[in-house]
C-alpha cells in the first residue's frame, strides 16, 4: 500500500493484524524502513516456549518483514528490544548473535512489566536503511 511517498509493509498473512490492531508491520519511505515490534509468535498467533525460542521467532519475523520491504538484517541501523525479564538478557544475546554476528546496530534494551500478550517475553523493533549493510538481499 503506497501513499505520500511511503509504502506500508504488511507481508501476506499479516492483514488481520493490520485491520484489527490498526498498524503496519513496517513503513518504508525512500531507503528507510521502520519495523513495528516483532514478537515470538507463529503464523497461528501461538507464542513460542521460553525466551530463546521467542527471541528466535521474533528475529525470524523481523527478517521476513525486512525482506518484504527490500532490506535485510545487514541494513538494520537500530534495534529497540523490550523484555519482561531483564535477567534473561544473556539468553536473548545468544540468539541475537545468531542473526547479527558482527557490524552491530545501535541497540537499546528496555525492561517492561508486560507486552501485548501475557505470555510474550520479548519484542524487537528495528530501523533499517536499505543498502547500508553492503550486500543487498536477493531479489532487490
From TrEMBL:
SUPFAM superfamilies named in the record: YjgF-like
GO molecular function per UniProt: deaminase activity
InterPro entries (alphabetical): RutC-like_sf, YjgF/YER057c/UK114, YjgH-like
Pfam families: Ribonuc_L-PSP (PF01042)
Cellular compartments per GO CC: cytosol
Protein name, UniProt field: Enamine deaminase RidA (YjgF/YER057c/UK114 family)
Origin species: Desulfosalsimonas propionicica
Source species taxonomy: Bacteria, Pseudomonadati, Thermodesulfobacteriota, Desulfobacteria, Desulfobacterales
Amino acid at each position: 500500500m503506497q501513499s505520500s511517498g511511503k509504502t506500508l509493509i504488511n507481508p501476506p498473512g499479516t492483514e488481520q493484524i493490520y485491520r484489527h490492531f490498526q498498524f503496519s508491520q513496517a513503513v518504508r519511505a525512500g531507503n528507510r524502513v521502520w519495523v513495528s515490534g516483532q514478537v515470538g509468535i507463529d503464523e497461528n498467533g501461538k507464542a513460542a516456549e521460553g525466551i530463546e525460542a521467542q527471541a528466535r521467532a521474533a528475529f525470524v519475523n523481523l527478517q521476513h518483514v525486512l525482506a518484504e520491504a527490500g532490506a535485510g538484517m545487514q541494513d538494520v541501523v537500530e534495534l529497540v528490544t523490550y523484555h519482561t525479564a531483564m535477567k534473561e538478557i544473556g539468553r536473548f544475546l545468544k540468539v541475537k548473535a545468531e542473526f547479527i554476528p558482527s557490524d552491530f546496530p545501535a541497540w537499546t534494551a528496555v525492561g517492561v512489566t508486560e507486552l501485548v500478550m501475557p505470555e510474550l517475553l520479548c519484542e524487537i523493533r528495528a530501523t533499517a536503511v536499505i543498502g547500508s549493510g553492503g550486500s543487498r538481499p536477493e531479489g532487490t
